[in-house]
């Protein structure tokens, strides 16, 4: 039977139990079977025990030693900034407060006060003592500003945030393939943080790579939840993993693990006109002027870059390790990339949490094309942003640290040049800043183009096309691919004929370069886009 409690701030008896829940006060979820909570059967509300007051009595707190703190049950007073003076989280209903100093802390900071002395901190070789007062300082471990309650070592004249005294020494982050370690001060130099892309002050602490002499990261950036998996690796031997995807047989000849039948031969210095029927098995994009590996006995082709894809890698969209999926079991399965939301069929990367990336997005750590934008773009945060190439608001965008410019993964992985039936020449990707003056209409759909968005154009003929009209929804699926599902046969068709098929769903002629053809009971149905195909009921 659950233990019951009568606490002064709630009108009903509370019970004590272990279970998955979300705390009414701090709004954080508990780990199932590892945290106890107080709950009310009648109100269906639950709290962490440390997020509620135990008594109406004032408390003494080491971070505010001059005055006692009183319990407030209706939130912080209106004259306060409504943030906890220690952890800076937004205050909720229960608050410890000093009217004389306008000092407020939440229940967790009040019921779990920091220790007065830390004998063996990770950040320093000596014991540290809490300075329980308001004082402006710069933390020696992370280099950021603090306003109160530092931990100090007076003989060494150093100060640390409470959150920084146990920063992990050795960690893996999702922006680098090697381990990085914490130290202070850092090696002198003009370093830029590899995550936020801001300058690093080497007077203070940070993380660096022992194998890469110019890789440095701010302490706060390296330990972000979206960057670090939370595992301290000090004392744990590093595993040596072979990530090479092929064996070299001789110069220009490899045995690739994704093609067990035959060796692949490197093809150099070629230009394949009309290469629409030759597509890379990994990324599904056409093979034209790029170096590539080819099987002389069958139609298996890999871009040289795709042939060198590592078997494992890290990526900024997950803290886990991504594993390359290839071969018959995976290349014959459709997937949706969690970065660009394109459907794909070919090689992909997947981590243990189920995040799936196509090989183009998985290989994209930054975007640098001066003709499209003068600065380099990086994945600095995982906040939402508006892509200035297409105008859509996306969760994951690459950002420019020099100006307010963002680009989503779908636009960042667009082909720089592409062949389309609307023109005899290759179409070139251009930014909105390069749009010609006046009004222009898309050569394919004949609708007006937006001069502020990216577009495709022919430098010889001057035609202008919408990006979506040139690429369609099935850019990462090879034409000719046939899939079967029970009594249905699905095929990705290449729309290269004058008599374009009519879409079964919307009734218009398919204007995109690829379409879905579904054969059901010997009857053919055509779908011009992913949206139209999803409307079909099979």
Automatic annotation (TrEMBL):
What is one Pfam family matched by this protein? C1_2
**GO molecular function terms attached to this record:** zinc ion binding
Q: Does the keyword Metal-binding apply?
A: yes
- Does the keyword Zinc belong to this entry? yes
Signal peptide from the UniProt entry:
none
Keywords, A to Z, come to: Metal-binding, Repeat, Zinc, Zinc-finger
The record's section on SMART domains has: PHD
Source organism's superkingdom? Eukaryota
Q: Which residues form the Zinc finger PHD-type domain?
A: 22-102, 138-197, 279-341, 441-507
**Protein name, as recorded:** Zinc finger PHD-type domain-containing protein
């Amino acid at each position: 039977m659950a233990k019951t409690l009568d606490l002064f701030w709630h009108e009903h008896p509370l019970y004590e139990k272990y279970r998955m829940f979300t705390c009414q006060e701090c709004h954080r979820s508990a780990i199932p079977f590892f945290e106890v909570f107080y709950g009310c059967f009648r109100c269906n509300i639950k709290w962490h025990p440390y997020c509620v007051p135990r008594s109406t009595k004032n408390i003494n707190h080491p971070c505010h030693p001059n005055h006692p703190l009183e319990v407030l049950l209706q939130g912080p007073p209106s004259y306060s900034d409504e943030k906890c003076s220690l952890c800076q989280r937004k205050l909720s209903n229960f608050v410890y407060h000093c009217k004389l100093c306008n000092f407020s802390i939440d229940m967790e900071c009040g019921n779990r006060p920091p220790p007065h002395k830390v004998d063996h901190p990770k950040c320093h070789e000596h014991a540290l003592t809490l300075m329980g007062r308001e004082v402006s300082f710069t933390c020696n471990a992370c280099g950021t500003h603090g306003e109160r309650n530092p931990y100090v070592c007076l003989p060494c004249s150093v100060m640390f945030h409470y959150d920084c005294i146990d920063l992990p020494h050795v960690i893996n982050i999702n922006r680098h393939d090697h381990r990085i370690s914490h130290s202070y001060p850092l090696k002198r130099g003009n370093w830029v943080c590899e995550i936020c892309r801001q300058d690093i002050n080497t007077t203070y602490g940070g993380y660096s790579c022992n194998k890469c002499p110019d890789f440095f990261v701010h302490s706060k950036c390296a330990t972000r939840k979206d960057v670090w998996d939370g595992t301290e690796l000090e004392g744990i031997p590093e595993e040596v993993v072979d990530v090479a995807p092929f064996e070299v047989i001789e110069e220009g000849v490899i045995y690739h693990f994704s093609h067990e039948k035959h060796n692949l031969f490197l093809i150099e210095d070629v230009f394949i006109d009309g290469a629409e029927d030759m597509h890379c098995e990994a990324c599904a994009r056409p093979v034209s002027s790029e170096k590539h590996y080819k099987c002389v006995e069958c139609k298996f082709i890999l871009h040289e870059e795709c042939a060198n894809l590592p078997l494992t890698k890290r990526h900024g969209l997950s803290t886990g390790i991504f594993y390359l999926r290839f071969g018959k079991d995976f290349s014959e399965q459709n997937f949706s990339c969690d970065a660009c939301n394109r459907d794909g069929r070919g090689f992909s990367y997947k981590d243990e949490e189920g995040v799936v990336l196509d090989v183009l997005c998985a290989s994209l750590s930054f975007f640098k094309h001066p003709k499209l934008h003068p600065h380099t773009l990086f994945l600095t945060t995982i906040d939402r942003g508006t892509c200035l190439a297409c105008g859509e608001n996306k969760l994951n965008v690459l950002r420019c640290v020099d100006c307010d410019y963002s680009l989503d993964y779908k636009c960042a992985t667009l082909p720089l040049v592409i062949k389309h039936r609307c023109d005899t020449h290759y179409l070139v990707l251009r930014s909105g800043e390069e749009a010609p003056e006046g009004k222009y209409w898309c050569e394919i759909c004949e609708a007006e183009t937006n001069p502020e968005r990216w577009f495709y154009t022919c430098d010889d003929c001057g035609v202008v096309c919408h990006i979506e009209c040139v690429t369609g929804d099935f850019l990462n699926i090879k034409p000719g691919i046939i899939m079967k599902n029970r009594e249905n046969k699905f095929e990705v068709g290449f729309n290269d004929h004058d008599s374009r098929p009519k879409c079964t769903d919307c009734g218009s002629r398919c204007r995109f370069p690829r379409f879905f053809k579904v054969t059901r009971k010997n009857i053919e149905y055509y779908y011009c886009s992913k949206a139209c195909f999803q409307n079909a009921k099979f």
